[in-house]
Amino acid sequence: MLPFHDVVADDFSQVNELIIRQLHSDVGLVENIGHYLIEAGGKRLRPLMVLLAARALDYRGKEHLDLAAIIEFIHSATLLHDDVVDTSSLRRGRPTANAEWGNAPSVLVGDFLYSRSFQMMVAIGNMDVMSILSDTTNVIAEGEVQQLINAKDPDLTEEGYIEVIHKKTAVLFAAACEVGAVIAGADQKTRLALKEYGLQVGIAFQLVDDALDYKGDAETLGKNVGDDLAEGKPTLPLIYAMRQAPEADRQIIREAISAGDASKLQQVVAIVEATGAMDYTLKAAERAVTQALQALKSVPESRYCAAMADIAHFSLGRNH
C-alpha cells in the first residue's frame, strides 16, 4: 500500500473484505473472474477517495465502506469491458480476463459487477447517491463509445480528446469524492469542491497514463507499451506532436494512428520527445493538479485532507 492508504488503513481493509463478500455468486465462473480481477490489486484510488472524502468531513457511519466497494465494482466492470473492446492482453502485469477466459465471459461478468453495484446502492437507499452514480455510469459508457468513434482518427482535436478523458476517466474520480461528501451531509459548496477535486485528479491521472504509453516499459506499467498506438488512439502526446512536427514526421504519426500500427513505435516516440509533446502533456496534468489542490482548500484541514493532496501529487509523479 502507498502512504496515503495508511490514513484509512482499517476502513480500507474492511472495504477489501466487503468486496470479497459481495463477489459471491452461485455461478462459479462469475466468482472466478471477479476474484481474478479484484485480486490483481491496483492502487484502488477511487474507493480510497470515497473513504478520505467522508472522513475529511468527519463522517462516523459505515456507508462509506459500501460506497467504496460500489465505486471499485463500477471501475472493475469498465476494465473488463475496456479490455474486450481494446483487445488488450495485459493488465497490472497479468493476462487480462478476456485473455484467460475469452470475451463473452468477461463482458458478462462486467455486467454482473455493474448490477451488483446497483444492488448495493439500493440497499443504501440514498437517492442523491443513486442519482450521482447512475449518471456517472451513463457518462462513462458515452465516453467509451466516443473513444471508439475517435479511434484511428488522426484529426481528433485536443478539445475532443479532453472531452473523452473527462467522461471516460475523470467522472468516476469526481463521483467517488462527491458521494463521500453526500453521506457526510456536506453543504453544496463543499460537495462541489470535492467533486471538482476528484475531476481534476482524474484528468491528471489519465494525462499521465497516456504519456506513460510513450515513455514507460511493460514491466513497470503492467501493460504493453505502445498499446494506445496499436489501438489507433489519438492521445494528447500524439495530437500535440502532430501540431509541432515537420510534415514528414507528422505523416508517420498520422499513418500509425489511421492503421492502428505500433510497428514504428520507436520513431513515434522519438517524434513525441523531439516536439516537446511529453512536456506539454505533463504540464497539462500539472495544471489539473493545481486546480484540484485549489478545490481542496474548501475542505477543513486534517490528515485525511492532507492524504487527498498527496494523491493529487502522486498522480503526477507515478510511473505506472
Description:
Its cofactor is Mg(2+). Belongs to the FPP/GGPP synthase family. GO terms for molecular function: all-trans-octaprenyl-diphosphate synthase activity; metal ion binding. It comes from Gilvimarinus xylanilyticus. Its EC number is 2.5.1.90. The structure is a single chain. The protein is mostly helical and 320 residues long. The chain has one domain: Farnesyl Diphosphate Synthase (Orthogonal Bundle). 76% of the residues lie in helices and 1% in strands. It has 17 helices and 2 strands. It has helices at 3-6, 9-22, 28-39, 45-56, 63-85, 97-101, 103-124, 127-150, 158-183, 188-212, 218-221, 227-230, 236-244, 247-259, 265-274, 277-296, 303-317, and strands at residues 90-91, 94-95. A two-stranded antiparallel ribbon has the order 1-2. Helix 3 packs across helix 7 (103-124) and helix 4 (45-56) crosses helix 9. The longest helix has 26 residues, at 158-183. The protein is globular.
Please write out the topology.
Blueprint: H1 3-6, H2 9-22, H3 28-39, H4 45-56, H5 63-85, E1 90-91, E2 94-95, H6 97-101, H7 103-124, H8 127-150, H9 158-183, H10 188-212, H11 218-221, H12 227-230, H13 236-244, H14 247-259, H15 265-274, H16 277-296, H17 303-317
Antiparallel strand pairs: 1-2
Helix pairs in contact: 2-5, 3-7, 4-5, 4-9, 4-17, 5-7, 5-8, 5-9, 8-9, 9-10, 10-16, 10-17, 13-14, 13-15, 13-16, 14-15, 16-17
DSSP strand tally:
2
Give the strand content.
under 5%
**Total individual domains:** 1
Given the helix and strand composition, which structural class is it?
mainly alpha
Low-confidence stretches: none
CATH superfamily: Farnesyl Diphosphate Synthase
Q: CATH topology, anyone?
A: Farnesyl Diphosphate Synthase
Shape designation: globular
Report Rg: 19 Å
In order across it, which strands form the biggest sheet? 1-2
Family: Belongs to the FPP/GGPP synthase family.
Catalytic activity: 5 isopentenyl diphosphate + (2E,6E)-farnesyl diphosphate = all-trans-octaprenyl diphosphate + 5 diphosphate
GO molecular function, one term: metal ion binding
Protein name: Octaprenyl diphosphate synthase
